[in-house]
Structures are given as structure tokens and as C-alpha cells.
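Morning run. Coffee first, then this:
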Amino acid sequence: STRCRRLLARPTGLLSLLLTVLLCLVGGALAEEPAPAPPWDTPEEAADDVLEALRQDDREALRVLAEREFPDPWRVADELCRRGAYDAAESFATAAPRTLTEALPAYVASLRGRAPDEKARAALDRLHAATKAEDWPEAIAASASLEPPLDSVVRVELSYRWGIALRGMQRHRESVAVLTTTAQAARELGWVERAWFTWAQVAQSALLGKDAESARTAFQAQLRFARAFEDPLRVAGALYNFGLLHESLEEFAKAVEYYEQSLKIKRELGERWDTAHTLGDLARAYGNLDRHPEAIEAYEEALGIYLDLGEAQNVAWVHRQLGDLHRRLTNYPE
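And here it is:
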């Protein structure tokens, strides 16, 4: 975001930049959950819509529902199974053609004949309410009933929220451990979207705990399975996150390497705003390596894109960065 680039414009040491990167992770690409604009259905409302589409034998409506990103199809299918509507859940899961939901039909089949895990669901409801109120001790208490295995959507979700609550209590090392286990369980279940966002949460907790190595491990996990699922935009995002991490560690040459890889993919995909965003970060990293001509070139390219997109705030930000850079070069010529 523009705010992130303003925050990161003048790094002043390892600790401050680590915390600045964390703010950007919390508010940007690695947020706990995507933030869709309303109105978006809850899983319960979406389940109602699925049942209605099936009652009407409206396969097109079912396909549209299954292809939506929000609410998460896994949570919708799980809600249908909770109601005992296994055939509906199977039809819904089968209608979802995306790679990220390819394991969903098998998950639905695994729930047939299993009693609903009402104890875990009650704990999750209690935890949700506590998290919303930022009552972290209550959230931890609500998580106490969680027992292995993490073999269902509700159990993975409960574990995920437990890790967030631990972070809310500044118990960062425990948060990293719980969230790492959760990410691995989500991946084994086939719930790719939850695994992806959970690794982002691992990174956030690790950075808050000043544990750059655990953050690196989380980003590596994201990159591995973005590549495994042949999702170029997620690959670009993971590479970009590595750039931020290396920059926070003042490893500017490595930061440039990752920013450039991310930039190449974003250009190929035609993602103009993301291209300009990454150019701004790349320019800053170039500047820290005294590669000033390349920094100016990157800023100017970003400026051109923002002008084309009508991004007035970002245009002003790039103008400030270019002005600052030119003043530094005038006062301290190479």
C-alpha cells in the first residue's frame, strides 16, 4: 500500500524496519484474511444458496456459487455437511473447478458417517466472540478443548484462531508453533487457501517475536506451494515477501534479487499496479546499494504507471522519493 511504501522509505535499522515490514504484512498482501467489499455471504448464507440452487436444479447458479472466492468454499462445504446435506456438499464441491479446491470432494466424502464435532464448533464460536472483543485470555481458554488430530475444517479453524490469540497475548514463540502446525494440517487436508494465509500469520508472529528465521521458513513454504500449484501471482507475492524480509535484515543485494524476480512475473501478467508497487520497493533497495541511476529509473517507471492509472496519492509519493534522492545526490555527489 501507499502507507507501507511511506513507512519503508527511510529504513533506520534492523528493529524498526522489521516492525515496519510487520505493519505492511498486517495491512497488505499478508493480512490475516482478505478484506472483500460487502456484501459477501457468510458460509451459512452461502450454504442456504447452494441448497436453493439444487432445489431449483439451477446448475449455473451452483457453478457460480462454487467458483466464488468468498466465503471460502471449504467452509461452505463444511457447513453443508454439518447440516447432514452431504449430497449437496458433494455437488457443490464437484462444481468448484479451481486447483485450490481439488481436494474438496475427497474431504466431503470423508465426513460422511462422522458425527458432527459440536464440541469443537462450540469452542470455535466462543473463540470467535472472544477474538472480536480482543479478550485474549478468554480466547485461549476457548481453545483449551482442542485435541488432535486437526482433521476437519472446524478443528483447523479453531487451531488457527488459537495461534492468533496467542499472538494477541504477546506469546509469539507459542503462536509460531501453533500456527505452523495449523498450516501443515491445512495443507495435509488439502485446504490450500487456509494453509497459504496461515503461513502469512506464522511470518507475522515470527517478526513480532524478532525471529527472522521462522519468518523465512514461512515465506519458503508459501513459495513452495505457490509453485506447486502453478499460481504465478502467488509466486510473485511470495518472492516479494522475501524481498521485504531481506531488506529488513539489511541484505539489500538479496532484496533486489527477489524484488526483480517478483517484478518480472508481475510485468508478464500485466499487473500494472503491482508492478508499480514493486518498482517503488526495488528503487529503495537500489538506493541502499548506491545504485542511484537504477533507483531513479525504477521510480520514474513507477511514476509513469501511476500517472496512467490516475493514482494521485502514489504519484505524489514517487515525486517525493525522487526529490529526496536528487537532493541527496546533489549534496553528496558520487
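Residues 1-16, 25-38 have pLDDT under 50 and may be disordered. Good start to the day.
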